[in-house]
Amino acid sequence: MSGVLSGSKDRVVIRRRQGDARRQVRQLGLPRRLTLTELIARAEQTLGKPIELQTVELPGDLSARFIQRKSSAVLETCPGLSDRSRVACILHELAHVFMSDPGCDHRAYTDMLSGRTAFTRSLDTPHEHAVELFADQLAVRIGFLDPEEQDGGIFR
Amino acid sequence: MTLHVWGSIPAWIILAVLIVRLWLVRTQSASVTWLMVCCAFVALGLTTNLDVIVDSLSANTHVPNIADVISRSLTVCGLFALAQSVEAAARTARLLRASRFVACGIVLVALIVLFALTDAPATTDKFMQTYGGQIPTALYSATFMIYIASILGISAAAVLAEFRQGRGTSRMYWLFIVGSGGIILLALIAIALDTAHVLGAMDAVDILIAVYNPVFLLSMVFLAIGAAGGVLPAAAREFRDWRETQRRIGALEPELRRLEEDAGHSGIYFTVRWHPREWRSQLHRLSVEIEDRARESGQAVPAAAALESTEPLTETTR
């Protein structure tokens, strides 16, 4: 019985977070459709520094991480991911940026921080759930889920 | 049935197809949503000319021929929606452009005022033929036709621009352009007809009416088939994708449950309440979480989950 109640409570919480994610992405004022490159440019604007994408071996189960330096940021994804997962990883990290996640906003007092793992994909915390839902909304905006519609067209 | 009611049939057919499509697939672009609104208003507007509706509206409102102004107002709203449909297809759509709303509002007010100025005491299903000899009635008809011709002209120009950009526009769209040209011709005929009527040149009126009818019907058919040329193939593709996605979701959910058990923890897929229209997002999350759990548990990703789309990723190579 308590399992059922817990399940229902989880669903209510997730439903609220889904609504929050939709609202937060709407509030970004992004175009109805934009490319991933354009989305990254928007994140760079928000962050106030360029973001470099890299594919590198990451420790443990990590699939991606976001490291901020004084004047730039690095978004690393591990090799061997499918295209879908790699884009999902990138969007997750960008979601952290757009959500102004304080955990990502390192005020560097050294030249380079060791980096905060912003994306573990284990989704262990409620906040990471919210970030993941936010990233799913970004996936819709970049036409990742329905690439055929990306160009749209009259009456299509 | 009057000419206009026959002309409503293509609009009803497209509307029915769009409703069935939406009911099944639950998703559609803003352009198609506005096209749906357009078809609904135009179909209703033209059907309002049905004898029984004309008589019923006059009897219930005690305003003779009120069906005509209602019909034209609905059609104007439908054409406004068509303009929105074309705008919505643009990458940087500005659907709340004030000038569009103001223009539509001015036309609606002008129609109502000019209709009120017309002396039309007896209800008839041939309003323009009976009362078209008055100047307010001629202006009433001209205002309506110019608005419609302008919107269709702009829409046809936008479709032509799509052809020039080589965006894979169906050749069926040419019929939309031909239909739009037909309606522009119809507007010219209507203005000439009303002018001849006001001037009392009844021979010219008879000739122009004979031309008006086939031009109207053919234009409506061309417009509907032309619009369908974009809508129907996209609808068929969307339906196929939706059906395939439902099949994949059904096959992959047990895989995710198994992998969650093997990995020892779960993601958010099974706690999210998926709206029927979110089937693409649902498959995306399902595929991503299957890959996560497979990696964590050291297993291969099930082949059915390996749905790839590389377009956005390619852009990141910079």
Describe the secondary structure blueprint for this structure.
The complex is a heterodimer of chains A (156) and B (318).
Chain A: H1 2-27, H2 36-47, E1 51-55, E2 64-68, E3 73-77, H3 83-98, E4 116-119, H4 126-141
Parallel strand pairs in A: 1-3
Antiparallel strand pairs in A: 2-3, 2-4
Chain B: H1 3-25, H2 30-47, H3 51-61, H4 66-88, H5 98-117, H6 127-131, H7 135-165, H8 173-199, H9 202-263, H10 279-296, H11 311-315
Task: Summarize, please.
The complex is a heterodimer of chains A (156) and B (318). Chain A is an alpha+beta fold and 156 residues long.
Structure description:
Chain A has helices at residues 2-27, 36-47, 83-98, 126-141, and strands at 51-55, 64-68, 73-77, 116-119. Chain A is an alpha+beta fold and 156 residues long. The radius of gyration of chain A is 17 Å and the shape is globular. Residues 1-5 and 105-121 of chain A have low confidence and may be disordered. Chain B has 318 residues and is mainly α. Chain B has 2 domains: 3-229, no CATH class; 240-308, no CATH class. Helices cover 76% and strands 0% of the residues of chain B. Chain B has helices at residues 3-25, 30-47, 51-61, 66-88, 98-117, 127-131, 135-165, 173-199, 202-263, 279-296, 311-315. The interface between A and B is large, with 50 and 54 residues.
